[in-house]
What we know:
Layout: H1 2-14, E1 18-20, H2 23-28, E2 42-45, H3 49-62, E3 66-69, E4 84-87, E5 95-99, E6 104-107, H4 113-121, E7 125-126, H5 139-145, H6 152-155, E8 162-168, E9 174-177, H7 182-189, H8 194-207, H9 209-218, H10 233-237, H11 252-255, E10 264-271, E11 273-274, E12 279-287, H12 290-301, E13 307-312, H13 313-318, H14 323-327, E14 338-346, H15 349-366, E15 374-376, H16 379-388, H17 390-394, E16 401-403, E17 407-411, H18 417-429, E18 435-440, E19 445-453, H19 457-476, H20 488-491, H21 495-499, H22 501-514, H23 558-563, H24 583-588, H25 595-607, H26 617-625, H27 632-636, H28 643-658, H29 662-668, H30 670-677, H31 681-689, H32 691-701, H33 717-723, E20 740-743, H34 747-751, H35 754-766, E21 771-772, H36 781-785, H37 789-803, E22 811-815, H38 818-825, H39 828-831, H40 837-845, E23 847-849, H41 850-859, E24 873-878, H42 881-886, H43 890-896, E25 902-906, H44 925-934, H45 936-941, E26 948-951, H46 954-964, H47 971-977
Helix pairs in contact: 8-22, 18-19, 25-26, 33-35, 35-47, 41-43
Amino acid sequence: MKGDIRQLELLAKDLKGDLFTDMNYRLLYATDASAYMELPMAVARPANEEDIRKLITYANEHGTTLIPRTAGTSLAGQVVGNGIVVDVSKYFTSILEINESEGYALVQPGVVLDEMNLRVAEKGLFFGPETSTSNRCMIGGMVGNNACGAHSLIYGSTRDHLLSVKALLSNGETAIFESLDEEGFKNKCSGKNFESSLYRHISDILSDPVNKAEIIREFPDPSIKRRNTGYALDLLLNSGIFTPGAPDFNFCRLLAGSEGTLAFSTEIKLNLVPLPPKVKGLVCIHCNSLEEALLANLICLQHNPGAIELMDDTILECTKSNITQRKNRFFLQGDPAALLIVEFARNSIEEINEIRDNLERDLRKAGYGYAFPLVTGADIGRVWALRKSGLGVLSNIPGDAKPVSLVEDTAVMPALLPDYIRDIKALLGQRNLDCVFHAHVATGELHMRPVIDLKEPKGVELFRNVAFDVAHLVKKYRGSLSGEHGDGRLRGEFIPIIVGQKNYELMKQVKQAWDPKGVFNKGKITDTPRMDTFLRTRKVEQQVHFDTVFDYSSTHGFLRHVEQCNGSGDCRKSALIGGTMCPSYMATRDEQNTTRARANALREYILNPGKSKEMSLNAVYDILDLCLACKGCKSECPSNVDMAKLKSEFLQHYYDIKGVSMLAWMVGNIARIYRINSAFPWLYNALIKNSLTGALVKKILGFAQQRSLPPLSGKSFEKWLRQNKYIGNDHPAETNDKPVVCLFLDEFTNFLDAEIGIAAVKLLVSLGYKIECLPSKESGRTFISKGLLRKARSIATYNIRLYQQVLGPHKALVGIEPSAILTFRDEYPELVEEGMRENARFVASNTFTLDEFIAREFEAGRISRSSFTKEKQFIKMHGHCQQKAIASTAATKTMLTIPENYTVEEIKSGCCGMAGVFGYDKKHYELSMKVGELVLFPAVREATPGTIICAAGTSCRQQIADGTGVQALHPAEILYKALVNNQ
Length: 983
């Protein structure tokens, strides 16, 4: 390996892009979204075609293989191997051309599907195949796997829309593969270069009558829309060169689904289709059994739907534990054993309603289904989001036995599904295996995941035995072992069962002709290793153990929480797609800054103690360092990976070994520091505002010199509250039907934003609410964020003991700063000692942000619009990231629109980039500002004169001020100023 490293170092110097050979980086690319893991030799990020050509030359000369990779969402291990992973997701991301008149797009392989569709939608077009990973999967990966999607009933697969591919061949030659008539094919065959030899080779194979007959007899039923087993020799045979009257020949049909084993694509030309009718409706059929749903599917197909998706009760149950997906269950009635989601697109809602009525009539007549709600408008996206979460939420099942990707991609004719499922259930029943079902049932594609413990040898043995038996069962129904996810390492060894040994030998000949030295993704489709080798999930005799502070009983331990990450890559969404997770990835587009990478690092650190390939303590620290702890993953990751929690826990472990840094100590104790300095706020403010002393303070703290330090309020909020007799709970107040507000005195409002606290109190009192403020401790947010969890636990315990005695139906704990008050709802229940957890949950259930409380009171009729001005005002609102993850910004919008002529537009930003003190750190400043520039800063700068910029979080307001020079207001300030008696 040392010799290899030296040669790779020379190669790195010759590339315009990047080449990484360090252990830590390689480990991050050792997995994808599959069950597999193998350490690559290196990771390359080529900047241009010449870089790829140099990598091909290196692979030829040194006998290694190149593994093309985009988003790494493969479910069958297609991008796992011991060669050089070539990641094109960083630099090959350009949309080169959109031709509206001819209906095509020319793109590089690293273009994200949803991002491309946003661009072409402006011209009334889109790319038909849309996978469940469409918000992060890339076109190169879709070609490699011949991806389909929910609407394959209408639009087929990627292969059906692939017009041409520009690629580098295994000898470094450039070739363009496109549609050819008979004359064009002959011209290609007559050439002298390597490309021409490929045409001659395929001509020899497919002109042979014996080969023709064998392909026709053994390949999956051509009526199955989703056929993705091995190389598509059957489709090449069905071209005008070999079958009279068939379409023109195009090698793109072979490249689609070839998993990067034949050539390296650099430009891809895609057919675009008109956008479907704008009026859509989903008929959500609630069934009493899986069998009933499969039979109902056949009736649904008679009504010409665009898509039919199946979810079983196991998946639906898992969605209850995910913050985001719970909100998407709005349409469910009871707990169906299976759910069919049937989509129709028509020209009017009247047509949709008529179809829905006719469909319900036919289903009821057949005795299928008990509820048939119709979902329309914006809610359609929420239903599809629930369906797309299937793979991720399955990782939430506690324990080591998980639904595994094993027979999750088989496809048979839809009419055969009931019999096929009966046989599958019998096969699994013989082994006492439970199974999870979700599917694109309209096209006969079923994702079935038996629950198996791959940490146990018996589970691994079962893993392979079930796959072997299912392959024979698929062959019985003349189905395809892969419908859309490809063969990879999972199904490659079973291809001979599906297509026959002779056809498999033909596939090996194709691989040899295109790639004689195994330069491209060796070990996929042909000569694949046994599918039960190189598994990611494994049981080890030794692992790193440490006493955790947070409670992990719901996931059966810290490691199992880490292992909930299944690699699906939901954390690779861009700012253009939206959402909060993961801001550091959005700003850098680097894999090492994803939640997935951080989970991989933690897992390997725990599982490899004392080994030379260990993910070291310092390396994990560095990888976690750019996590902003925004909490976006807790709600948006379908697997519920709470990286902020995991990071805090790891930091406490790190300090136990390395000691606490001065910066961590000072940030954690910031409330104490503020309190000391609040005795002389004028002196503190003078020091931080002075260019010399302020610079010295920032240098000592390790803060970026570009940052402005927040000044202390002239009088603390606590002092104002005492002067106005709000501290304590024994002061008189009017008796009315309104609940008492137990106001939480957080450390940020107290010392930095007293004027906001005062506005909040005056607002509530003006609206008739009694205010109490108990002598609590600070929230502990800074201790949690810096990983000083034992100190945070003592604070949480004190606060829970204080508030558990006073809260209830008529007294709510209300907070002004979201990051502080939401600590009660988010961290406290898992932070306090076991005996206090029930009390913590009680307090959490009675805890609200100020926005939530006012919105609730308004909706209950206890706050009237008549109390507020009727003047017009436009507000642009940025939501605090923890508020978006743990609560919702809907309450803020409700609160701000109580004045009847106030209009609120929520800025489609994720995290602001400050994230507490993250953005102050000089190491993080540049990244912090990049995050702000993604969406937030431009939106603020583009605001029209007179627009109010609103942000509930103190760090958000600071970031906006530093990034744009605009002073954002807290919702309490805005609503207080809107009171009629303030006009």
